Amino acid sequence: MPDLDIHQQLQNALESFRDPETGRPLSKTGQVTDWVVTDGHVRCRLALSSMFQPIASEIADRLRDHLIAHVPGVSSVEISLDTLYRPAAPMGQIGLKAKAVIAVAAGKGGVGKSTLAASIALTLERLGAKTGLMDADVYGPSVPHLLGLEGRPEIVDGKIQPIRCGSMPVMSMGFLIGRDQAVVWRGPMLHGSITQFLRDTAWGELDYLIIDMPPGTGDVALTLSQLLPLTGAVIVCTPQEVALLDASKAMAMFEKTKVPILGIVENMCGFTDPESGKTFDIFGRGGARSKAEEASVPFLGEVPIQIALRSESDEGRLADVLQNPRIAKPFEDVCRALTRSIADQIAARPSIGAPLPVLG
Ligand SMILES: Nc1ncnc2c1ncn2[C@@H]1O[C@H](COP(=O)(O)OP(=O)(O)OP(=O)(O)O)[C@@H](O)[C@H]1O
Ligand SMILES: [Mg+2]
Q1: Of 92, 106, 236, 341, which is the most exposed, with the fewest CB atoms less than 10 Å away?
Q2: Could you report how far apart the first and last alpha carbons of the chain are, in Å?
């Protein structure tokens, strides 16, 4: 078969492969370039923005398999990855420039929401996505403590400057009030501070804004959903039966405000004794996976009990402990599953037929 024909067939095959970020077929986005075809061997370049860097090689693998399956005569495909810049559009009246805003929530206190929110944000950032972390627990902010961050945010040109963990911007009520100071909030103040965190903070341009939600009641969830279109919620639960019931409550709360559930994470699902290597499922295991199946939402993975995670984050060293590959691995898996779930949400959007955003 002449090469020209193969080029046409390769282009045609891109029609049925979506860009994860826009949901548009790759044949229309100009993200695949520099085709070289020799004797059934194909080389090309695929450009993705930082938003999908966490699963870039996985997307390249899928594209390779797709081309081999759809174009007769292609025996091997080699894809080089590039990064393209694609700006984040400001969200509604808030003006926040983020491609996805994700609430990390649970129906219950103490299941590890803050630990997971902070670890997911740090891991997404490390995997190449521009990420910010907002602590929406204005009653009991714990993010500054977990990350060992202090200092008062400055105001520059009318914008609150977030405190940075490495390069990642972080905003929390903990930076505005003294340590151990109790806050008594009334409804309007709560709404006001969440609005300020989103609208008046110099977040810069983000792929992901991860929001650590307070335990229990839905008033913060409601406020958030009034201010911006949340991309979705990640529900954290522990394996105990009662915690799973609480997870259902949390899901119902988001569903009421039409916020999609991006998935469930099972936290504290087992403990491996470092001495014997034996694993003990202290609170049980697998409940969240079956709960996710039952509710037809993605299961994003399990995070075992890791003593260092607790002891180090108590000392403000969560970012350091995540440098340990063994501790970081479950969070990487969760982040990859989360970005896959977001790609699925995007692909399912009714606006997918809309014109293409401008490629930078
Ligand atoms: N996988 C884990 N392994 C070990 N310790 C953990 C793990 N996940 C969370 N923890 C510990 O459990 C405690 C509660 O976690 P965290 O503060 O993140 O929960 P939370 O759901 O945000 O709580 P709250 O409802 O009070 O906001 C902390 O001491 C934390 O270090
Ligand atoms: Mg918390």
Answers
A1: 92
A2: 36
Q: Which of 63, 83, 103 is the last residue of a domain?
A: 83
- The alpha carbon of 245 and the centre of ligand 1 are apart by a number of angstroms equal to 19
Report CA(111)–ligand 2 centroid distance (Å).
8
Same-domain check for residues 67 and 160:
no
What stretches in the chain show pLDDT beneath 70?
1-4, 178-187, 217, 351-360
Are residues 67 and 110 located together in one domain of the fold? no
Supply the pTM of this predicted model.
0.93
How many CA atoms, within 13 angstroms, populate the side-chain half-sphere of residue 84?
A: 17
349 CA from centroid of ligand 2 (Å)? 31
CA dihedral 342, 348, 349, 354 (to 10 degrees): 110
Residue 218 Cα to ligand 2 middle (Å): 14
User: Taking ligand 2, which is a single-atom ion, which protein residues have CB atoms under 5 Å away?
Assistant: 113-114, 142
Rounded to an integer, what distance in angstroms lies between the CA atom of residue 270 and that of residue 192? 40
The verdict on residue 214 lying in a domain is yes
- Determine the pLDDT at residue 1: 47
Q: What is the pLDDT of residues 244-287, one digit of tens each?
A: 888 899 999 898 889 999 999 999 988 888 788 888 777 777 78
Residues with CB under 6 A from ligand 1: 106, 109-115, 137, 142, 215, 267-268, 303, 305-306, 309-310, 313
Q: 3-state class of 252 per DSSP?
A: helix
Same domain, 49 and 132: no
Question: Relative to the CA of 305, which ligand 1 atom is closest?
Answer: 3
Say what the pLDDT of residue 360 is.
Answer: 31
Q: Are residues 322 and 181 in the same domain?
A: yes
For 161-196, how does the pLDDT look when each residue is reduced to its tens digit (9 = 90+)? Answer: 999 999 999 999 999 886 666 666 666 778 888 999
Residue ending a domain, choose from 62, 83, 104: 83
Q: Which domain holds residue 36?
A: 3-83
Number of domains in the chain: 2
Q: Which residue has the tokens 């990390």?
A: 104
Q: How far apart are CA 123 and CA 54, in angstroms?
A: 9
Q: What CATH number did the domain enclosing 13 receive?
A: 3.30.300.130
